[in-house]
């Protein structure tokens, strides 16, 4: 448990913050610069941030360097499935926060992301990146 507190949780939070920042940046860009409807923009920004999140969580947070025998594809598929489910939850939460509670769409996105991050940590740790592999040694 000490290892989780010292290394994994801070890395998960930092990696998640980078993914969330990517999400919010593209949400802002799409809505305020390009005039895309906020719900459609939320979907696109969530998908764009998926790649950033996957790479950071796989290689940095959970230090899982396995790529052989289809492991990378399996992990990407599982990560995408969780992300796709999260996308639906995120879109629903955005709709509720913005249309019912009249929150500013960016603040709604921050709240939605925080709620999703908590549940996702356990899914990623125990199902997607469950095996830790050794990083390749440089010569």
Number of helices: 4
Structural class: mainly alpha
Shape: elongated
**Rg (CA only):** 16 Å
How would you describe what is shown here?
- This protein is an all-alpha fold.
- It is 79% helix and 0% strand.
- It contains four helices and no strands.
- The protein has helices at 2-33, 38-61, 71-100, 105-128.
Spell out the key features of this protein.
single chain; about 140 residues; mainly alpha; 4 helices; about 80% helix
Secondary-structure blueprint:
Elements: H1 2-33, H2 38-61, H3 71-100, H4 105-128
Provide a concise account of the structure shown.
This protein has 139 residues and is mostly helical. The protein has helices spanning 2-33, 38-61, 71-100, 105-128. The protein is elongated, with a radius of gyration of 16 Å.
């Amino acid at each position: 448990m000490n290892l989780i507190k010292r290394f994994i949780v801070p890395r998960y939070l930092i990696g998640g913050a980078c993914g969330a920042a990517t999400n919010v940046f593209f949400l802002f860009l799409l809505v305020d610069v390009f005039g895309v409807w906020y719900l459609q923009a939320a979907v696109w920004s969530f998908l764009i941030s998926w790649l950033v999140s996957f790479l950071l969580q796989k290689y940095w947070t959970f230090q899982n360097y396995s790529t052989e025998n289809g492991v990378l594809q399996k992990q990407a598929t599982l990560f995408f499935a969780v992300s796709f489910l999260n996308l639906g939850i995120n879109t629903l939460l955005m709709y509720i926060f913005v249309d019912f509670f009249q929150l500013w769409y960016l603040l709604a996105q921050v709240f939605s992301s925080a709620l999703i991050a908590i549940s996702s940590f356990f899914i990623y740790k125990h199902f997607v990146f469950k095996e830790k592999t050794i990083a390749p040694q440089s010569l």
